[in-house]
Amino acid sequence: MEKRELGKSGLKVSALGLGCMGMSMGYGPAADIGEMVGLIHEAVDLGVDFFDTAEVYGPFTNEELLGKALSPIRDKVIIATKFGFAPDPANGGAWTAVNSRPEHIREVAEASLKRLKVDVIDLFYQHRVDPSVPIEDVAGTVGDLIAEGKVRYFGLSEAGANTIRRAHAVCPVAALQSEYSLWYRKPEEEILPLLEELGIGFVPFSPLGQGFLTGALKADATFDKGFDFRKFFPRFSPEALKANQRFVEKLKALANERGATPAQIALAWLLAQKPWIVPIPGTTKSHRLKENLASVDVRLSDADLRTIGDSLAEIEIYGDRFPESYEKGTGI
């Protein structure tokens, strides 16, 4: 698989990474550990070397899974993890609070190193901005961890333009991880131009719209309230799912015209936007992994890109991506 450099950081990774959260949480019960170790190894065999996790995934169990799977082949892979969430006593101990105090960042780094079974974290993202801690203090702390050899590169997630600029002035930001896909294009307004200006790479999460852009979710799809967080997202309400079928049906038609699947067109379109964009689609299934990775061989002409982007942009999307309370924690 081709390699891409994340901005001008010097960090080169496979053109597609693997988002691993769904193996442990988010879309249903945790998958079988042995099967997921096998899937991760299959991804490596197919050319993937960029794997994404976070302490909050599980919590902890996803990092432990990657440690089990990747520590034997450490020299072949790049592992990204995240700090910044913490249990919230006011919310029953749920991991919904933010905490980026310097001492907490260090605690998370040490714990993640142990769970991942590595000597250095390749890419350490602030998972969400903590408004109570100056971003200069966060960047400075991660910069110190880099100087100490415990972290290689600094990243941000779902941060706003001003925060990105301020952080980058203290410690170079290698990558921003935020949502971006054919049905969530807000980063095009301000974030993509800023990243290009500063030489920062972009790692889109949910590049397949949390499964919607695969075409597999029908209008009558239901979600397990106890395990699948889409149950709480406005875009996956019964009304929105029904209304948004028009979007995915158009994507299917565009894909059929080009001899590809909807997922492959969605990923190929993202890859074509900038050479420093590295999407991280997640999956727990071998056939979906192979389908996604085949998108790197889907070549779209400039006319294709305009047609796909413009045709889908004309279709109104129903429902916000996050509940209002969660959306308030992004773009800060």
Radius of gyration: 19 Å
Uncertain segments are: none
* Oligomerization state: single chain
Q: Largest sheet at a glance?
A: 7 strands, parallel
Dominant shape: globular
Beta-strand content:
15-25%
Description:
Helices cover 37% and strands 15% of the residues. The chain has helices at residues 33-45, 61-70, 102-116, 135-147, 161-170, 191-198, 238-243, 245-257, 262-273, 286-293, 302-313, 324-327; strands at 3-5, 12-14, 18-19, 50-52, 78-83, 85-88, 94-98, 121-126, 151-157, 173-179, 201-205. The strands form three sheets. The chain has a seven-stranded parallel β-sheet, with helices on one face. Strands 1-2 form a two-stranded antiparallel sheet. The protein is globular, with a radius of gyration of 19 Å.
Task: Tell me the layout of helices and strands.
Layout: E1 3-5, E2 12-14, E3 18-19, H1 33-45, E4 50-52, H2 61-70, E5 78-83, E6 85-88, E7 94-98, H3 102-116, E8 121-126, H4 135-147, E9 151-157, H5 161-170, E10 173-179, H6 191-198, E11 201-205, H7 238-243, H8 245-257, H9 262-273, H10 286-293, H11 302-313, H12 324-327
Parallel strand pairs: 3-4, 4-5, 5-8, 8-9, 9-10, 10-11
Antiparallel strand pairs: 1-2, 6-7
Helix pairs in contact: 1-2, 2-3, 3-4, 4-5, 8-9
List keywords for this structure.
332 residues, alpha/beta, seven-stranded parallel β-sheet, two-stranded antiparallel ribbon, 11 strands, 15% strand, globular
